[in-house]
Amino acid sequence: MRRRSLRLRLLATFAVGALLLSSLFAVLTYVAFERVLVSNQQQTDLRQSFVNAALIRSTLYTSPPDLANQLNAIEQATNSSVLVHTHHQWLSKSHGAATTDVTSTIIRLVDQGHVVSQTLQRNGRLIFVVGVPIPAVETQVFEVFHLGRLNDTLRTLVTVLGLGALVTTFVGLAGGLWVARRTVRPLQRVSSAAAAIAEGDLTTRLDLTRPDREIQQLTESFNGMVSRLADRLERDARFASDVSHELRSPLTTLATTTSVLQQHRDELSTSGRASLDLLSADLAIFQTLIDDLLEMARSDAGASSPDLETVPVAELVRQATRSAAQRLGVPVPSIDVEPASRTDEVAVDRRRFERVMANLMSNAQRYAHGVTAVRIHSDAGVVVIDVDDAGPGVPAEERDRVFDRFFRGRAAHARGIAHGTGLGLALVRDHVTTLRGSVAIMDSPEGGARVRIVLPTHVEVTA
């Protein structure tokens, strides 16, 4: 399952949070402003209606023929439409008035002596209708106020609030980006430092510029942990090296004594010769173990940095294979080089690489009837070296564990077969990793096991 990015989650949190907050603020602001504006407008229009109704009543008393002119004057002054209703019929109305704007329900209620005010939607227009009864002359006055300007104001408010919410969202996104960078950058540096330490560079330390208090605590704890780890590994490596050196002297004495006994082998009894053979075999394992421990101690302590030199990979493999075969007293296996790889070069430490090939050939000789072929080919900037053997192969569940120190797999249960120390393949992995490569075990197409070494191809940098 693909892991979610902390940076993206922070950005999304800030952006969504800003959008929700700004939207909530915009909605509350719109509702509040709408109620205030509409309420104020309605109160103003209602008061104006009472004033206009008083004028109309006065006109009906003093000069009824001037009613139409009075209604038109009110319409121009208040930007409203005025209608006068009496005895169930329209007596007069202003120029812009329309009887359809007043519903029968409003007429009935006003006719009963009630003052009525109602907001209606007519043909897409928002209107405010006020009905005022004039019982003295048995007349009802209806005034229709057009709220178009208020609608425009509210639409403008919606646009402004929407743009404000959008701008706030982008501001929140920018703030999230800043916070994400500030938060994730130290974590990325810690991750890079941890990766470098995992690859063996125990000199890596965190050095952050003006860190916050929490980051400072993390930095100090991380650096302290790495320092303690490096000290512990150095002590362990020094201990293994010291023990191995101390064992060399008695081991040399045992080897000399065994050599003397071998010279007088014919003088020993049958059981004595059998004991001498067991002693010689175990002594050989012991010598190999001491050499491997010394090599591993040097590798763990970082005492021997790789002495890199650039060589053709085909020549390097031939020399290392020939040298290992002579040391083991076995035939040199066939070496197949892909034509495209004959000119490829790699930057390696010859001593380490020769030790890698010697360990692989020795391991194959002990458990897999020897190496059958070594194949070299190139693939996307790397050189692949396959070492095939003629054995039964390595079980899939053991292919990663065989590179662990002192792990010998199923062969360890057969004393007559397992003559190794369990450190050979561990040293192979350590040396290949030091050379910036990788090693893995898989099935050989011809049967048996295949050890695949992948090394980066050396590329000349020209000015």
List keywords for this structure.
about 475 residues, alpha+beta, five-stranded mixed sheet, 3 domains, five-stranded antiparallel sheet, Heat Shock Protein 90, rod-shaped, Beta-Lactamase, Helix Hairpins, about 55% helix, 9 helices
* CATH fold topology of the largest domain: Beta-Lactamase
Order of strands, main sheet, comes to 2-1-5-4-3
Characterize the main sheet: 5 strands, antiparallel
Low-confidence stretches: 411-418
Count of extended strands:
12
Query: How large a portion of the residues is in β-strands, by DSSP E?
Result: 15-25%
What radius of gyration results from the CA coordinates?
A: 48 Å
The separation of the N and C termini measures 44 Å
Full CATH superfamily name of the largest domain: PAS domain
Class inferred from helices and paired strands: alpha+beta
How many helices? 9
What's the pLDDT, averaged over the residues?
A: 81
**Principal-axis shape:** rod-shaped
| Helicity range | 55-70%
**CATH C-level of the largest domain:** Alpha Beta
| Domain module count | 3
Q: Helix and strand string, N-terminal first?
A: HHEEHEEEHHHEHEEHEEHEE
Task: Give an account of the 3D structure.
- This protein is rod-shaped.
- 55% of the residues lie in helices and 17% in strands.
- It contains nine helices and twelve strands.
- α8 runs antiparallel to α9 (424-434).
- The protein starts with 5 loop residues before the first helix and ends in a 7-residue tail after the last strand.
- β1 (80-86) and β2 form a beta hairpin.
- The longest helix is centred in the N-terminal third of the chain and has 57 residues, at 6-62.
- It has three domains: 6-154, Beta-Lactamase (2-Layer Sandwich), CATH 3.30.450.20; 213-301, Signal transduction histidine kinase, dimerisation/phosphotransfer (DHp) domain (Helix Hairpins), CATH 1.10.287; 309-456, Heat Shock Protein 90, CATH 3.30.565.
- The strands form three sheets. It has a five-stranded antiparallel β-sheet with strand order 2-1-5-4-3, sandwiched between helices. A five-stranded mixed β-sheet has the order 7-9-10-12-11. Strands 6-8 form a two-stranded antiparallel sheet.
- With 463 residues, the protein is α+β, with helices and mostly antiparallel strands.
